[in-house]
Amino acid sequence: MNRMTNFEAITINQNESIAKAKLYLKQATKVGARTTSRRARFDQSMLLSIIPWELNVKQEIKYTILAAESFKISGEHYWYDSAETYEHAGALFADVLHDPKSAAEYYEEAGKVIEKVDTDFATKYYRQAITRHCDASQYENGAVIQDRIANNLDKKKDFAAAIQEYHRAAKLYYAANIKHRAIQALGRAAYLLAAVGKFRESADAYETIARRQAEHSMVTSVKSGKAGSILRSGILLICDSLEKSENLGWRELKKFMQRIDSVHSEFNGSLEQQKMLDIFQSISDGDINKFVDSVYSLDDALCGFDDIVIDALDKIENIIIKRQKNSVTHKEHESNK
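Above: the chain sequence. Below: its structure as tokens.
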């Protein structure tokens, strides 16, 4: 009995909120028409005071926001209406009152309302919010929303688009002088490049991050307790070199180490450098046991790898094993001649 009563109450409340939303929209439209008429006369004659006109605009916005809120609490089927109504409020702030800060707030609210059911539609509103935040020099707020767009694409596994959005987020974080958040966004973009098999691009991205971290005096080495940007870049570079050529690019890796050493004074002689050289030497020797030992000792030093580093190391291991088999086969073939 109580459940039925509650259900009926919810139904009545929903109907009431929808009715309120439509009423508020009607009032907003009426005020908006009056405002437009007064503004036209003001522009023509310059006789009307701007104060009543601004009050009318603010009243129209008030009714519009009330309508959006009423649609929002009416349930999922009315979230599109709510989002569109919030967007209208944002447009009034932006285009009529020239208030980008308030406009951004309601464009963002439009995105949040519809995000649960349609992230693509939400992105449309989020982009408008970012533009207005930037107009108001609120770069941090814009960066957070940009990060949200990237995360939504990331969750949908649209990695190519997500990578671009993370880079945009990083630029806004830098504009806001929030360097650690910029590095995080760039790090996720670098990770996704490796996830889609673009190891060389990922290696370059991690090297760029290592340079940025050096500029900002951030931790990049094994002292952080996990595989740092330098080591990630080196391992991915080795993997890409092996996959593309029979010859391991010692010269390329040496140049990489020289570039890192030029911006990281502590890199020369560090654990990261030594382990990277051990791995490289084991590959050059074609010694799978030495390679495995190097990886295990590195894993202990770093307290574990993530899937990207493990995937690259697995590829390197498989290449070494394949080369060993080919070498044995070749020797057997030569001995049988």
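The chain has 14 helices and no strands.
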